[in-house]
Amino acid sequence: MNVNLWNINILGIGFMLVFSAFTAASFMESIVFKDYGKHGITIETGFHSLAVIYGVLGVSNWFAPAIVNKLGSRLSLILSVLPNIGFIFSMYEPYQWSIFLCSTLLGLGGGVLWTANGEVIARNSPGDTKPRNTGIFWSWFNMSALVGNTFLYFQLGNAETISDSNRHTIYLVLGGFSVTGLLSFILLKNTPTPIGDGDFTEEPSPWQPIKDGMRFAVSSNMGLLYGAFIFTGLSLNFWSSVYIVIIANVFPKRNYLALAGILIGLGQVSSGFIWSVLTYKIGRRGVLLCTTVVCCTAFTLVYLAFPSDAATTQEARAQGVPIIASNIYLSLFVALLLGLGDGGFNVTIYATLGQLWEDAPAPAFAVFKFVQGILATAAFLYCGDLLLPYQLLILGLACVIGCIFFLILDYKCALHAEYEVLPDSTQRANSGNKKQFYEELEQPLMQTDP
Fold first, then answer.
1. Which of these, 448, 370, 407, 436, lies nearest to 107 by C-alpha position?
2. Which residues of 92-129 are buried (b: 16+ CB within 10 A; e: fewer)?
3. Which of 116-120, 189-193, 273-277, 404-408 is the most confident on average?
């Protein structure tokens, strides 16, 4: 196995191990705290901890490129996993100060972790190997939602609460996953520098990605994507925590939470394949419309099958009465739909950003992650107090509005023939149209005639 392929596989295995631990830990955090109930820890502590993580992560994406450029990708990967390990072990015996400290550090490390990941893939993907190497990485990474939650399913068994001894075992094992992931990054090898890359070039300013991101953030076309960005942040809050809490407050067995996590993970893993195939058949507009229908169907089923206090009750079980009887099989089907819908929106956003800002993707993705993180933070702050129907209403409106504005952008881009929207699109813009289009990309959202 050559050096490049070795590094891509090691990177994928490391991320799979690290995120097997983080995904399972964050899924269970609020319910673990509800069953714990000591040192002032409550279910809302879990929501607020996740709010801190995603809020800090959104901001750290702006500064991460400068840090990775200074430290190098391998050292950046190793150091950025340390807060993840601390966060998981902090739940062995949680205190408020340790939870929020580790959540802040985890958010800071997250931006560096993903930036370093992108650099490793880029440096180890010479020529036309980037699609293959990206596919290898994501194949490994997508296993994380399945591995961590499968462990939780067998560990939790038929328990109706998470005892201290069970919690200790869970977070020791998950911490071991993270430590193993960190150690795997040590095995990354130095990539040979291609001929010509050693020529002297002026080192870019660490502030340049921030300046580029600010310029992109106020462009008219980026503004049309904000609706979709906002929805993915709200959706992240719902599928990663709120829906797990809803199931825990309605059904007695704690291993149902792990099953829901597995189905959400399966939905996200399969979404990449399903939506990619459908893009060639019905186009990107059709895919986003289908994704919107899937999301709204899931929200409607949650509204019908769960009581209004399912997300906010402080009791052992929700006290309200749903419109239709709650059913674990229907609940697991909804989990699959949530994964499919969220994955569809993210696949569409990633593909769109990668094509429209292909010459400078990092600042564009920083804008996306910033907006997504801030909206996820806001949702984590209100989800413990707002009744379920109102949360679903916000999600449904954001989903539909995000879809509408994306379709406007998609139609605008199609007029310039900039990227493939319809199944039979085969021609890209000529250089003159492309230059004109990129000039329009950077036009501000609001302009005043001189």
1. 370
2. bebeeebbbbbbbbbbbbbbbbbbbbbbbbebbbeeee
3. 404-408
Phi then psi dihedrals of residue 297, to 5 deg: -65, -45
Contacts of 397 (CB under 8 A, 6+ apart): none
C-alpha distances in angstroms, 222 versus 229, 362, 441, 442? 10, 14, 8, 9
Distance in angstroms (rounded) separating the CA atoms of residues 77 and 84: 11
Largest CA distance in the chain: 70
Q: Say whether pLDDT at 252 is over 70.
A: yes
Q: The pTM is what?
A: 0.83
Residue with tokens 């991101």: 213
Query: Which of 212-216, 227-231, 283-287, 430-434 is the least confident region?
Result: 430-434
- For the chain, helix (H) and strand (E) counts, in that order, are 15, 0
**Within a 10 A sphere around the Cβ of 306, how many other Cβ atoms?**
27
The residues, ordered by sequence, that sit 6+ positions from 310 with a Cβ below 8 Å of its Cβ are: 245, 246, 249, 250, 318, 320, 388
- The residue whose two tokens read 């379709």 is 407
Q: Which long-range contacts (CB under 8 A, 24 or more apart) does 157-162 make?
A: 157/255, 158/253, 158/255, 159/253, 159/254, 159/255, 160/252, 160/253, 160/254, 161/35, 161/254, 162/28, 162/31, 162/32, 162/35, 162/36, 162/254
Q: Label residues 421-430 b or e (16+ Cβ within 10 Å = b).
A: beeeeeeebe
CB neighbours of residue 445 within 10 Å: 13
Q: What percent of the chain has pLDDT over 70?
A: 86
3-class SS at 219? strand
Q: For the residues 100-126, what does the mean pLDDT come to?
A: 89
CB 50 within 8 A of CB 42: no
Of the pLDDT bands very low, low, confident and very high (cuts 50, 70, 90), residue 442 is very low
Which residue bears the tokens 């869970």? 170
d(CA 342, CA 320): 28
Question: What six digits make up the tokens of 265?
Answer: 């993970």
449: left (phi over 0), alpha (psi -120 to 50) or beta: beta
pLDDT the model gives residue 449: 41
445: helix, strand or coil? coil
DSSP state of 254: T
Q: d(Cα 357, Cα 438) in Å, to the nearest integer?
A: 8
* DSSP 8-state secondary structure symbol assigned to residue 436: H
